[in-house]
Design brief:
Strand content of chain B: under 5%
Radius of gyration of chain A: 30 Å
Number of helices of chain A: 25
Distance between the termini of chain B: 51 Å
Strand content of chain A: under 5%
Strand order of the largest sheet of chain A: 1-2
Number of helices of chain B: 3
Largest sheet of chain B: none
Order of helices and strands of chain B: HHH
Distance between the termini of chain A: 82 Å
Helix content of chain A: over 70%
Shape of chain B: elongated
Structural class of chain A: mainly alpha
Order of helices and strands of chain A: HHEEHHHHHHHHHHHHHHHHHHHHHHH
CATH class of chain B: Mainly Alpha
Oligomer: heterodimer
CATH architecture of chain B: Orthogonal Bundle
CATH topology of chain B: Helix Hairpins
Largest interface: A-B, 13 and 12 residues
Number of strands of chain B: 0
Number of strands of chain A: 2
Structural class of chain B: mainly alpha
Chain lengths: 661, 98
């Protein structure tokens, strides 16, 4: 207890949980009370954001280097394993707290307009509040098990919200896929926790990170294995190769959910985890290289797929995977502050892009609804020229596009440039990082290209909705454009948080996070690059972004596009990209099908039906029946027989009694 | 009255009763053999009462009372069985066979 507003930290998750309970009750008994749901659902989030701001201000005033830990009750007291239900506030969790509640509030507000006519309105907000609760537990937890509760909880909410419209099988399947793929990652997290407890004798963040440098040999087997298992958890939650396939399918959920869970907050949990465990990753250089390498490869790979997607949300989904790859390059390199910085700016501009696409889909859906058309409201081939009807959305999405493409002075430029510069600097010590830098740069080029393509096909060129539907296209109500404007401002100026010294800034976020990142940074090799090199890198990054955007503008011809219904199939390499490198098919053939075959032919038909049902259940019944048949043979119904046996019995007893005495 | 002849007669009567129950098939005969066994026991009680006190004689009255009740119920059952099956031969009555 510090005696300041920091003590109120429990209120933030508690408010979200309260919102879930109240909205859940309304969803069960009064699903039509939409006004009450709106007030509760958005209200608790706004209150939680206010609490978050108060806590962070109070924490900054304290000027504490060490985390402030609140232990509420003993959760798992088992011998040497002492786990408390504990929350902690430090510089890193403060940043996450503000992002989760801040961006979360805006997206809740947007949802009010987007989900207005949905029958599951109360259920939707109940899930959304529950998600915020678990996300706050994840980022505020003071030990691995508490964090894991949040980690699993956000997975659950993700599943519930992807399959929100579960009446359609494709949505329910997407939810299942997300849940199952995440299980693989969660297995890694669990194993990592076991190793951490075995190696350090504790699961508290403070104890583990303090003891790790002395107990774990740098570059040794234990720390390498445990960080790799941790990273397996990250690849699941944060959609990296090889477990990224669930995220594009997660777009089946409502668009604000994609913005909140599958872009801004939940999927960044893996980046948060690596940054939180920076000491462990600094002790395991191989794991660091694996993290950065996987991130770089994912960034490039996902960006290539995004080039040929037609569904506006799928483009953004692959873009999210790609940007998460950039973050992992940052944290894998040891530039924790850069990774977290990109996490924050990405939360701004990607939330804006998703909400903007939500606004577009909302308009398209209403236009098609009004004309009783059954075209795909998310296919960019059906859009075109929307800037005339959705000027606010178009303008704001352009800001986000420039930010994600890395055009100065928008926020994404600073964060992405810092990551690439850190990778390049590390490359001067370990050349393999130059490869990662190259991948990241190529991904940045493709990012600029596919984002420009998205904007071009959606908002520019001729209209392809059809003249009848075109007159029904309207900008969304203020409750939806309002959050877009706020996010647009944040996307534009978010770079202020961490203007590097190169630009005469103070690198505020970098210094703010130093108490958290210092122990890990101290273990990594020093890598400095001269200012001249840095300026060169900046020039390259800007050139790449400009090339991507201008290239898209020159190469792509929206006039040549035909609506999705009559569009020809792609040919050649474009077809490979359109089909996502056939990764889903490969997984299906090499993992899913064998697993289904083993489950069906061996586990079901042999083990379950043969052994358990046959020998176990029915076998026991057959045995009992055989014994019963034997016993029933004694019952002849002949009284004489009974009497004879009775007499024999009496004689036997008499003999036994008399012989005994 | 001598004790030993009384006990010998009692043993003979009891054995006859057991043999009858085991060997005969007519329910009424078997029933009479059961009565024979009861009375054999009664004879033992009375004979031993000379030495061991009056308790044995008291017990005989109980046995006779129970035997009378048993006769009433048992004969009624046999009568009911006869009405049902037209026989009192126990070999023909085996519907409780397992």
């Amino acid at each position: 207890m510090t005696g300041t507003a920091v003590d109120l930290i429990w209120l933030a998750p508690a408010l979200a949980l309260l919102g879930f309970v109240l909205n859940g009750a309304l969803a069960l008994w009064r699903p039509t009370a939409k006004a009450a749901v709106t007030v509760i659902g958005v209200g608790v989030l706004a209150a939680a954001f206010a609490v978050g701001v108060a806590v962070v201000i109070a924490f900054a005033r304290l000027g504490a280097e060490a985390p402030v830990v609140f232990r509420y009750w003993s959760w798992m007291p088992v011998g040497a394993l002492q786990v408390d239900a504990a929350l902690q506030v430090d510089q890193l969790s403060a940043v996450m707290l503000l992002v989760v509640t801040g961006v979360g509030s805006l997206i809740h507000l947007f949802s009010v307009g987007y989900m207005k006519e949905d029958a599951g309105y109360a259920r939707y907000f109940a899930y959304l509040n529950l998600f915020i609760f678990f996300m706050l537990v994840l980022v505020l937890g003071a030990n691995f098990p508490v964090m894991f509760v949040g980690w699993e909880g956000v997975g659950l909410c993700s599943y519930l919200l992807i399959g929100f419209w579960f009446n359609e099988k494709v949505n329910a399947d997407a939810g299942k896929k997300a849940f199952i793929v995440n299980r693989i990652g969660d297995f890694g997290f669990l194993v990592a926790m076991f190793i951490i407890f075995w190696a350090t004798g504790s699961l508290d963040f403070g104890d583990v990170f303090a003891r790790a440098p002395t107990l774990l040999a740098a570059g040794g087997g234990a720390v390498t294995v445990l960080t790799l298992f941790l990273f397996l958890g990250c690849t699941g939650k944060s959609a990296q190769i090889p477990l990224y396939t669930w995220l594009p399918d997660a777009m089946q959920g409502p668009t604000p959910v994609s913005a909140l869970i599958h872009a801004a907050t939940m999927v960044t949990a893996g980046v948060y985890l690596v940054a939180r465990c920076n000491v462990l990753f600094a002790l395991a250089p191989i794991s660091g290289a694996v993290v950065a390498g996987t991130g770089a490869l994912t960034a490039l790979f996902a960006a290539t797929i995004a080039l040929k997607q037609w569904d506006i949300k799928r483009v953004l989904a692959y873009s999210t995977i790609s940007q998460l790859g950039h973050m992992f390059v940052g944290v894998g390199t040891g530039a924790m502050a850069a990774g977290i910085f990109h996490l924050v700016t990405h939360a701004f501009f990607k939330a804006l892009l998703f909400l903007g696409s939500g606004s577009v889909i909302y308009a398209m859906h209403h236009a098609y609804h009004a004309t009783h058309s059954h075209e795909d409201a998310q296919d960019m081939r059906n859009m075109g020229g929307l800037r005339r009807h959705l000027p606010w959305t178009a303008g704001l999405m352009w800001i986000a596009t420039l930010a994600i493409a890395g055009v100065p002075p928008f926020s994404g430029f600073f964060s992405k440039d810092e990551i690439l510069a850190a990778a390049f600097a590390r490359g001067s010590v370990q050349p393999v990082w130059l490869v990662f830098w190259g991948f990241g740069l190529a991904a940045a080029l493709l990012t600029a290209f596919y984002m420009a393509r998205l904007m071009l096909y959606t908002f520019h060129g001729p209209n392809r909705t059809g003249a009848e539907a075109e007159v029904h296209l309207h900008e969304a109500p203020w409750v939806m454009t309002g959050p877009l404007v706020v996010l647009g401002v944040l996307s534009a100026v978010g770079g202020i948080l961490n203007v590097p010294e190169l630009w005469g800034g103070s690198a505020w976020l970098h210094h703010w996070l130093e108490p958290v990142t210092k122990p890990g940074a101290a273990l990594l090799p020093e890598a400095h690059i001269s200012h001249a090199t840095e300026w060169t890198l900046v020039a390259i990054a800007v050139a790449v972004a400009a090339t991507g955007i201008v290239g898209a503008w020159r190469l792509l011809k929206p006039e040549a596009l035909v609506p999705a219904r009559s569009a020809p199939a792609e040919r050649g390499f474009a077809r490979v990209l359109r089909n996502k490198w056939y990764v889903d098919e490969l997984y299906n053939f090499f993992i899913v099908q064998p697993l289904v075959w083993v489950s069906r032919e061996i586990l079901w038909k042999r083990v379950d039906q043969g052994i358990i049902d046959g020998a176990g259940v029915n076998g026991a019944a057959r045995g009992a029946r055989a014994l019963g048949w034997l016993g029933s043979r004694l019952q002849t119904g002949q009284v004489g027989m009974y009497v004879a046996l009775f007499v024999v019995g009496v004689l036997a007893i008499l003999w036994r009694v008399t012989a005994g005495s | 009255m001598l004790l030993e002849p009384a006990l010998v007669i009692s043993a003979v009567l009891f054995t006859l009763g057991v043999a009858g129950v085991l060997l005969r098939r007519n329910a009424i005969v078997i029933f009479m053999c059961v009565e024979l066994m009861l009375n054999a026991v009664n004879l033992t009680f009375v004979a031993l009462a000379q030495r061991l006190g009056v308790g044995g004689q008291v017990f005989v009255f109980f046995v006779m009372a129970v035997a009378a009740a048993e006769a009433a119920v048992g004969l009624a059952i046999i009568l009911a069985v006869y009405r049902h099956k037209q026989t009192v031969n126990l070999q023909n009555i085996n519907i409780l066979k397992g």
